[in-house]
Amino acid sequence: MAIDKQPSCDDVFEPELLPVSEAVERMAAQITPVTETVTVPLRQSLGWVVAAPVESPIDVPAYTNSAMDGYAIHSSDLPGDGERSLRVLGTVWAGKPLNTEVKAGQAVRIMTGGMMPTGTDTVVIQEHTSVAGDNVRIDGSTAPGKNVRMAGEDISAGESIIEAGTQLEPAHIGLLASLGIDQVKVYRQLKVAFFSTGDELRPLETHAGKTLGPGELFDSNRHTLFSMLERLGVETIDLGVVADTPEATREAFISASDQADMIISSGGVSAGQADFVSSTLAELGDVTFWKLAMRPGRPLACGKVGKAHFFGLPGNPVAVMVAFYEFVQPSIKRMQGCSRLTAPRFAAKCETKLRKSPGRIEYQRGIFETGPDGMTTVRSTGKQGAGRLSSMCMANCLIVIAADKDGVEPGDMVQIEPFHGLV
Ligand code: AMP
Ligand code: MG
Q1: In this structure, are 103 and 143 located in the same domain?
Q2: Is pTM beyond 0.85 here?
Q3: Which domain holds residue 267?
Q4: Residues 43 and 168 in one domain
Q5: Is residue 196 lining ligand 1, measured as CB closer than 6 Å?
Q6: DSSP designation for 133
Q7: Which of 48, 53, 379, 393 could form a disulfide with 186 if both were Cys (CB 3.0 to 4.6 A apart)?
Q8: Concatenated DSSP letters for 310-341?
Q9: 175 & 210 share domain
């Protein structure tokens, strides 16, 4: 009798696969952001998400000052043609204002950042002057009001400067400091519990440096997950390696849902293993097992276990990372209250041929670089197996190839998602 073949990831086209965009939308609809807030010291707030709009308590600049080293004058003293000589009353240094009023026919030497003395509105840069004794000579080439930074020109008191939902970056920390603000109201930290599943896994905690037995491997996913979670600023709860038994799985999920806002597991969601995991989860929560139209990372479980959100990622190490970046990271950011959720994508010219069959979106590992002509090019890291974590280490981006494409030829434009940005 002929074998009744089931759909598998080997199939070129699997009609029942869920498109990634659809999965992203369904996940977004499930996630509810945290509402509790905490107030933290400024430096501790880096990477946290602002919970209430921040208004500036002061004008920036706080006082009208010079943008250049030169001479502060009144614009009515600028000659139309020729030159004029003005009497220099003294010098203003940054932080050392001059408390005399400057009258017509007078000037004050002023340094960058120095407070503009009363009666002046223009700075003639020192390179455009000549000094003779107590006098300075200027010509009419400076426009009235030039080289002056007006009080409140950058920010005015009461203006909203950081919106709720902003994840704080170094520029925000500096901006808040410049306003005299030393603490920030942010959304509380998320707690994320994570574990690995698989009887073949040997944890580093007990097996680092030891020889593996036949069929055994070191558990790496937990360490990758820990590292990706650390970067997102969440509190991590490591529940170790969980054996492939209904009892151990049940216990892990109960412990995780008691402690965490989100649970992430790796492994155990592909066909053949999902059965007991899914029956355990059917009892404890509401979880759907998806087959996604993507590579790597076809199987994925998603839903709720108790009050916690749950992501059951595939076991293969590259699939773990890709599924994390595409689904878990935006979900964590959404829970954190963050308004900017997705990673930026750029167009790049592909230098290598990329093999792919149509039907699933592919996330291949690439190395991009921007040439002196400003053109960004990308090339493959080589073999793309989902277990080949070294390909992620060689790469500096994912090359995202749309589901309907059947490969990429050298010279074709592709989309890339860089791993690191300027933050
Ligand atoms: P699974 O989805 O459980 O069938 O796992 C697929 C494959 O991923 C397994 O055959 C392992 O080789 C690998 N794998 C699963 N979990 C881990 C882990 N925690 N660390 C490293 N590799 C893993
Ligand atoms: Mg497994």
Answers
A1: yes
A2: yes
A3: 20-34+190-336
A4: yes
A5: yes
A6: T
A7: 48
A8: EEEE-SSHHHHHHHIIIIIHHHHHHHTT-S--
A9: no
The secondary element (H helix, E strand) that includes residue 148 is: strand 148-149
User: Ligand 1 atom closest to Cα of 266?
Assistant: 16
- Please give the distance, rounded to the nearest whole angstrom, from the Cα atom of residue 194 to the centre of ligand 2: 15
Q: Does residue 107 belong to any structural domain of this protein? A: yes
Quick: pLDDT tens for 301-345: 999 999 999 999 999 999 999 999 999 999 999 999 999 998 899
Q: Could you tell me which residues come within 8 angstroms of residue 317 by beta carbon, excluding any fewer than 6 positions away?
A: 220, 221, 224, 386, 387, 388, 389, 392
Q: What CATH number did the domain enclosing 358 receive?
A: 2.40.340.10
Closest ligand, as measured to the CA of 241: 1
Q: For residue range 87-126, what is the model confidence (pLDDT) as tens digits? A: 999 999 999 999 899 999 999 999 999 999 999 999 999 9
Q: Alpha-carbon distance 362 to 11, whole Å? A: 14
CA pair distance 257, 254, nearest whole angstrom: 5
Nearest to 280 by CA among 320, 310, 259: 310
Q: How far is the CA of 201 from the centre of ligand 2 (A)?
A: 9
**Cβ-contact 253, 263 below 8 angstroms:** yes
